Amino acid sequence: MFERNLGPQRIRPRRHAGEVRVEGRRPPPWPLRLLFAAAVVSPLASSWYRAEHKAGVEAQAEEAVRWGLDGDPCPVISAVDFTAASRRAPMTTEFDDARLSRRIGHAQCSRHVYRLDGRKREAQVCDFTGPGALAVETPKALAYWAPPAAARVAIFDGQPRCVQRAVFRMGD
Fold first, then answer.
1. Pick from 136, 138, 110: nearest CA to 124
2. Which is nearest to 82 in space by CA: 95, 99, 60?
3. Is 100 within 8 Å of 92 (Cβ atoms)?
């Protein structure tokens, strides 16, 4: 009935004199794309991982310095000296199974892992801004100290240890 006029059929010219066009499917381009993506993404991911690892190591080093136990030991006092240090009742903080009493100042406690004697050991650690006098009672020990300024108390396996610190502000 109605015939469509499609016009003259286009025949693709040969590019080279001896070129023969092979009919059929071309191989899919996805393997090449996958290789290209792997070649681009792999170095980027590797450099990102190295940067994150380096930042993590630096953060751990900063945290170790911040919570370090370096310093002079706190001067030891007796229970009578602790009681005579102030007329006010001591401020007591209970942290896990330890009772930490101070005369003045602020306290901040947390748990940290330290490498001591070639192995990792967890400790309860408390910082005091200016306690005047400290009393630490654990199920295994009772200790009294009079640090001249700020102090850090770490408790390893029920044994308290006090070191003097430079004066600091809580939260720094």
1. 110
2. 99
3. yes
Q: How far apart are CA 79 and CA 65, in angstroms?
A: 32
Which among 119, 133, 124 is positioned nearest to 154, based on CA atoms? 124
* pLDDT tens-digit series, residues 54-91: 887 777 767 766 777 888 899 999 988 888 877 888 88
Burial of 73 (0-12, 13-18, 19+ CB in 10 A): exposed
CA nearest to 135, candidates 121, 153, 117: 153
Is residue 125 within 8 Å of 112, Cβ to Cβ?
Answer: yes
C-alpha pair distances (Å), 79 with each of 64, 116, 130: 33, 30, 19
Helix (H, G, I), strand (E, B) or coil at 135: strand
Q: Where are the domains of the chain?
A: 27-66, 79-165
φ/ψ (deg, to 5) at 118: 75, 10
pTM of the model: 0.61
- What is the greatest pairwise CA distance in the chain? 121
> In angstroms, rounded to a whole number, what is the distance separating the alpha carbons of residues 146 and 104?
12
Q: Which of 69, 128, 71 is nearest to 95 (CA)?
A: 128
